[in-house]
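Need the bound structure for zinc ion, inputs here:
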Amino acid sequence: MKKLTLPLLLSSALFALACAETTPPAGTAITHVTVIDAVGGVRANHTVVFDGDEIVAVAPSDAKLPAAAETIDGSGKYLIPGLWDMHVHLTYDDRFTDSMPDMFLAHGITSVRDTGGLIPNLEPVIAKMRAPGARAPRVFFSGPLLDGEFVVYDGKSRPEIGTQNSTTAMAEANVAELKAAGVDFIKIYEMVSPEVFDALAKAGRDAGLPIAAHVPLSMLASEAGPAVDSMEHLRNVALDCAANAEELHQERLAILNGHTEGPGGDLRSRLHALQGSPAIAQYDEERCGRTIASLTSTIQVPTLRLNTLAMHPPFERTDWDTALAQAPASAREEWETLITGWRNNNALRDTTSAEFSLSLVGRMHAAGVPIGAGTDTPIGLSIPGYSLHTELERLVEAGLTPLEAIEAATIRPAEFFSLQDEMGTIEVGRRADLVLLDENPLDNIANTRTIAAVIARGKMVIE
Ligand SMILES: [Zn+2]
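Answer from helper R.:
Posting the output first, comments after.
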């Protein structure tokens, strides 16, 4: 290396200084804030600088940092990564579709995973949400529920969000079509045969698409679970936790194979009614332990909020009326009617299944099964955005720590899409999705509701 003379060294240093002085300050600094994420833990009195959609500095507030164009005083506040809702349906109820992006952002949800809708319905919604400068969370979508010969969500007794896969050839063609339509993952549904399930899973993997699934009624959780990346609602897991699981499986196969006509939704309800409660009554610790042990590489999105409605009716929360006021008026009236019906129906107060769901998630978590946070909004009285915070409370009730609940709504969903190097933590180089809270979420997970500001894709969207 050429030796530099002192005058040259001095002048280059002066030149560098001059450059630094003429570069205008850029980005936004959140100063003196307590930074919390599931990897870095808790960092008190830090400054986080983001510039556009990127975090460019994270350092103790007394460190020398380049001046930012804007400063937010984060003293006494807490900064967490933008939250995800891993299970939403943007097009399930079109009264909600337009208002959902704003409702998510208002509650600190900066990314959503749409787990089922028809492509023609989803396409304009996704395009609008992804348009440059759009006020919307990041969105990842699967397209329709890939169902079996008999489709549950067939557009007759339920909204049409499912599609038929009667043969392995149809399965391969459908996945190819979805890949071409630009889906981010696929979702396999409950009525597929084991052969179709295998064909869908293989086609998804070959296409490089992550796979979400319900455990098909024709299979056991321990067979289907390890083949996919996420499982939803704990659906049909109880059937593989029963002492007589094999017997129940044979009984289901006989009914499924003997079914020649009629809606998939009716067939599914019949099987759930026939085996759901008996399976819980026949719960076998050892059998369930083996089932759970097979699922340590599959993210469980238990949607506990939904599964525990009987224990925790959302309309009994003190902040329910305020939250519901944000919902579209037409849906609000329908929900009020639903709630009145609910209050008058004691059968809906049976908490057996809710308690089972909570204890199953606790056991799964203790065994190292990764847990993800999702709500199924707007299904089952789930107010978009608001309900994710209820899900976090249920996850803590099931046995996660508040930090693990935050992990379920940040790192886990990022991992599902192999995006953990881009999102889910507050580090240099990560995307600028951030939520500023007034109260410490580690003291009480309900404090994720105390939102002071939301930054989504580098823009302050709520303050
Ligand atoms: Zn769903």
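Comments: Residues 87, 89, 115-116, 376 surround zinc ion (CB under 6 Å). The mean pLDDT is 94.
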